[in-house]
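queue> pop job 88
queue> type: inverse folding (structure -> sequence)
queue> payload:
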């Protein structure tokens, strides 16, 4: 595969940005290759600067549930741009999007728009601390909630990939307020509540852990988290930056029928533009400035172009529930193909799949927690990644990420992908 132009651009970028990228996972560090520079994308396809075409299962890490450059989203955004890009003042679109979000997710009684998932989770935790007047939080090892100081403790995603789950630059005093439990391990959660009575402001969890690969909540785990947080006056925060509008229009909380106190959304909610949201119970959110003392602000929050993309994307998803049926069915087909790959090639592979999210772990273990995910052979993943790339399939450049199926993946795309998986 010719990647000469990507190599040239990479050299230039390396001189300007750390690792030549604006987000670490894009550096392809754990798959032993230099990153491909993308020129454009359309539907299920992504095209690099050397003209190589790929069927894309990264989907920009989740936003691309309808595929790239959906014509109706592009048309709406183009129209919105000529009216101005940002005003720093309220617009009707923010209320329109917020009303749609609440229609889809009734627990979002009151919400605030921000520009990234990191801002959303950081602000949700501040709201929970302001409401409970407590300092400590619980997160789970291998879960990733963005890069705010207190959450870069045993984090997932690229922090795990680069094996820096505890980032440099985070003062120990910050990290001390973050208690770490094990996903799907109720005892590890009970112990933290017993040893920190009445001190825990919030427990934040990815209802489906999708930043250590994809790890599903075991039967009763989420219900347990709901109960123990309610018993202890602790705010339950569902980080649905990935699962929101991905598993269903109601997100994971609808899929698993749990009523969290606060929820964060990102990715899909902005239709690919910089947009995220945090919100939930009115009694908590009413404490956020200007109605309360929890300060949070943002120049581009609720940006008119991002809200336009979000409105159109959610409208398309609400009008076409059949998209969810299709992307889940295709994800199941891919999961089956990985299982066949394991049998035919006699290689250890464990597949987790829920809705249109899946991950093929290169391990013989039944991956249901962080330890299981870490047992994966990342060198084997790197070789699989290279084989898929050579077959024209673009999957995550890290074992500890998800594979995303979009509504733009055609039957032909899926067939070609299965062929590549079984090659
Ligand atoms: P952002 O700040 O990257 O918009 O969102 C942070 C975040 C919060 N919560 C969850 C569950 C997330 O998955 C993320 C970000 N996801 C990663 C991919 N696993 C973004 C990709 C990247 O870091 O470049």
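queue> result:
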């Amino acid at each position: 595969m010719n990647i000469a132009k990507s190599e040239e651009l990479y050299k230039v970028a390396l001189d300007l940005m750390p690792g030549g990228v604006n987000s670490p996972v894009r550096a392809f560090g754990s798959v032993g290759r230099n990153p491909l520079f993308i020129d454009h994308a359309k539907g299920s396809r992504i095209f690099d600067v050397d003209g190589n075409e790929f069927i894309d299962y990264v989907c920009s890490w989740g936003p691309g549930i309808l595929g790239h450059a959906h014509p109706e989203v592009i048309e709406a955004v183009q129209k919105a741009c000529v009216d101005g890009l940002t005003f720093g003042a309220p617009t009707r679109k923010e209320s329109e999007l917020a009303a749609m979000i609440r229609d889809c997710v009734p627990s979002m009684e009151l919400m605030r728009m921000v520009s990234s998932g990191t801002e959303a989770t950081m602000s949700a935790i501040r709201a929970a601390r302001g409401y409970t007047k407590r300092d400590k939080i619980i997160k789970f090892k291998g879960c990733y909630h963005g890069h705010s100081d207190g959450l870069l403790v045993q984090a997932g995603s690229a922090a795990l990939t680069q094996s820096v789950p505890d980032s440099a630059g985070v003062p120990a005093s910050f990290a001390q307020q973050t208690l770490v439990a094990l996903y799907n391990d109720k005892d590890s959660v009970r112990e933290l509540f017993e040893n920190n009575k009445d001190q825990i402001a919030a427990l934040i969890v990815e209802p489906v852990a999708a930043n250590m690969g994809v790890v599903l909540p075991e039967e009763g785990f989420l219900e347990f988290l709901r109960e123990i947080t309610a018993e202890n006056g602790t705010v339950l925060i569902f980080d649905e930056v990935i699962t929101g509008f991905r598993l269903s229009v109601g997100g994971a909380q609808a899929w698993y029928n749990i009523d969290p106190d606060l929820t964060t959304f990102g990715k899909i909610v902005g239709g690919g533009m910089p947009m995220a949201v945090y919100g939930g119970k009115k009694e908590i959110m009413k404490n956020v400035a200007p109605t309360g003392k929890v300060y949070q602000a943002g120049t581009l929050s609720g940006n008119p172009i991002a809200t336009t993309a979000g409105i159109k994307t959610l409208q398309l998803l609400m009008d076409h529930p059949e998209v969810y049926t299709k992307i889940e069915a295709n994800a199941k087909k891919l999961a089956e193909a990985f299982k066949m790959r394991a049998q035919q090639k006699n290689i250890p592979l464990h597949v987790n799949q829920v809705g249109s999210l899946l991950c093929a772990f290169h391990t013989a273990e039944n991956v249901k927690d962080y330890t299981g995910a870490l047992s994966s052979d990342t060198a084997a993943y790197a070789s699989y990644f290279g084989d898929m790339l050579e077959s024209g399939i673009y999957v995550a450049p890290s074992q500890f990420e998800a594979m995303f199926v979009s509504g733009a993946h055609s039957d032909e795309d899926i067939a070609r992908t299965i062929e590549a998986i079984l090659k």
